[in-house]
Amino acid sequence: QVQVVESGGGLVQPGDSLRLSCAASGSDFDSDDITWYRQAPGKQRELVAGIRRYGITIYAESVKGRFTISRDSGKGPVYLQMNRLKSEDTARYYCQVSGTWGQGTQVTVSS
Q1: Percent of residues in the chain assigned helix, strand, coil, to nearest 5
Q2: pLDDT digits (tens, 9 = 90+) for 51-94
Q3: Rounded to an integer, what distance in angstroms lies between the CA atom of residue 107 and that of residue 97?
Q4: What is the DSSP letter of 55?
């Protein structure tokens, strides 16, 4: 069974940065299938960024150039570096690992 834990959320001002972390543990999870999603109140959950085999990364158009997904090595934590945050980035951010969801971490961008 896979356990997923997100951390790093918080309240920041527009233009600030945050780094989210996604840690997975347990057996038999595919470390090449890790995706960050977010869900704002009243909106559907949407893909933000993902990391795939061979280090291939994918991003939503709305975050390209501002967010970076990365991993130190192997099955280590996956990070989402979020720069130049906007109010529209406010949402609960979830990490999905091999189909398993974490509880999410709240990101609020407000002046």
Answers
A1: 5, 55, 40
A2: 988 889 999 999 999 999 998 777 789 999 999 999 999 999 99
A3: 20
A4: G
